[in-house]
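In this supplementary section we document a worked example of the pipeline. Step one takes a protein sequence of length 191 as its only input; no multiple sequence alignment statistics are reported here. Step two produces a three-dimensional model, which step three serialises into structure tokens for compact storage. The input and output of this example are shown verbatim.
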Amino acid sequence: MRVFHLAYVIALGAGLGLASAHFAVAGRPLLGMVEIGPWAAWPRSGSRDIDPYLRAYLARGVHLPLGAGEGLELIAERDDEGRGLDGRCRYRLTGQIPTTRGWTLSVTDTDGRNFRLPLDRNSFTDAEVVRAEDGGLRIAAASWPQPGDWLPLPASGRFQFRLRLYDTPIAAQAGETRAESLPRIARMDCS
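The serialised model returned by step three reads:
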């Protein structure tokens, strides 16, 4: 009977340990995350003082982070109202981009991989976008063509916006950045 109890305790401990380890590195960890409105960033992901959970997540080969002096990547999985981003809806990204040498805005799946979208376009760079008179952005994101700057979305399902800011001073001050200094994500309508 004692052997059965010992085997049960060992199996339970191993199972819980493996499950918790998988949970800790299966997605981006909450440790070290900075939320700025709908955007989330991990400013230490490319620095020497990276936490072990983010290091394990990055070791899985998901993507290569920007170095501490190179810039900052911000990820949005929700709109300004907190609703999950859905390919069946139309979105408007407006507002300003913080001071930066350059930036890219892309659409990826929830694992960070690019979609195969119409026109083989899944991103904008600072050189390609047409700015409003005040210098702000006005990008329409939808699965069907839109006038102006249009970023194609998948026909349905969840996705992410990824904003990469290169050589920006906010990389070191991400926790102090206000939501007004980043693009707003407004859901217009859904089909």
